[in-house]
């Protein structure tokens, strides 16, 4: 199965995190915000030029940049 990345999802789509392709400070920051393998999330909205992306994860709305979202592999549910 081809891996899909979070930045390619449309508002309203739900998914489960399957991989986090980042390390160092950026990877740790995403982990600290709750982007952990197996966690379910929903894309709430994209900004007018698609950056940032608002995500509902673990009951919190979080906005991340599109380039950060491109590091998160997901499975659509």
TrEMBL record:
The answer, when asked if Iron is one of the entry's keywords, is yes
Asked whether the UniProt record includes Signal among its keywords, one would answer no
| Species, as recorded | Oceanotoga teriensis
Q: Which keywords does the record carry?
A: Iron
Q: Which protein are we looking at?
A: Ferrous iron transport protein A
- Family matches, as Pfam families: FeoA
A Gene Ontology molecular function term for this protein is: transition metal ion binding
What PANTHER family is this protein classified in? FE(2+) TRANSPORT PROTEIN A
Provide the Ferrous iron transporter FeoA-like domain boundaries.
Answer: 4-76
